[in-house]
Specification:
single chain; mainly alpha; 11 helices; globular
Length: 258
Amino acid sequence: MSVLAFNRHGVWAIYRFEMSRFMRTVWQSLVTPVITTSLYFVVFGSAIGSRMNEVDGVAYGAFIVPGLIMMTLFTESIFNGSFGIYFPKFTGTIYELLSAPISYAEAVMAYVGAAATKSVVLGLVILATASLFVPLKILHPGWMIAFLVLTAVTFSLFGFILGIWAKGFEQLNVVPMLVVTPLTFLGGAFYSIDMLPPAWRTVTLFNPVVYLISGFRWSFFGTSDVGVEVSLGMTLGFLAICIVAVAWIFKTGYRLKN
C-alpha cells in the first residue's frame, strides 16, 4: 500500500465511534443548550434588551444571537475535542491508536472532525432556538456556515491539544472556564466594542475572541466591530497555530508515549 494512501476506513471507524458516543446522549446534549439559550434571552433579551436601543441598527435581542452561538461553539468544541482524545489516554487505549495502521494526520482528522460535527449541530440548534424568540435574517448564509464550521474545527483542534496536555479531568476545565469563557464575555458577545471608551476599546482589540464573534455577526447583519477580512485572517491564523502545535506533539510524542 502506498505511504500516501488515505486510510478512509480507519478515519471513518474513529469518527463513527465518537459520533455514536454523542448519539447515546443526544437528548441531554441538545436540551442543555436550548434551556441555556432560553435563559439568556429571558435575562439579556427581555430584562436588559427592553431598556436598550438598537445596537448598530439591530434590535438587541437579535444582536446577541451570534454571540450566544459563538460562546456555545467555543465551549462545546473544546470539550468535545479534549475529551475525545483524553479518554483513550485515561483508559490506556491510546497505545492501540498509536500502533494502528493509521497516520497521525488521519487520527486527528477523525477526532477533530467528530468534535466539530457535534459543535456545528449544537450551534444550529441554538440558532433555531433563537429564531423562536427574535426574528432573524441572515444576510450572508454562506459566510455564516463558513465561520461556523471554521470556528468549530479550530477550537476542536485546540481542545484536542488540551486533551493531550491535561493530566486529569480537572485540567480539562481549567482553560475553558478560566480563559475562554471570560474572553468570550469580554469579547463583544453581548455588546458592541464601539460602546466602550476609547482606551478600553483598544485593550479589547487584543482579545482574539473579538475577531471571531465580529466576523460571525457580520454574516448575520452586515455590520461588525472589525473588518471581516481581519476576522477571517485571525481565525485562519489561530487554526494554523493549532495545526503546528499538533504536528509538534506527534513528532515529539509529548504526553502520548509516557
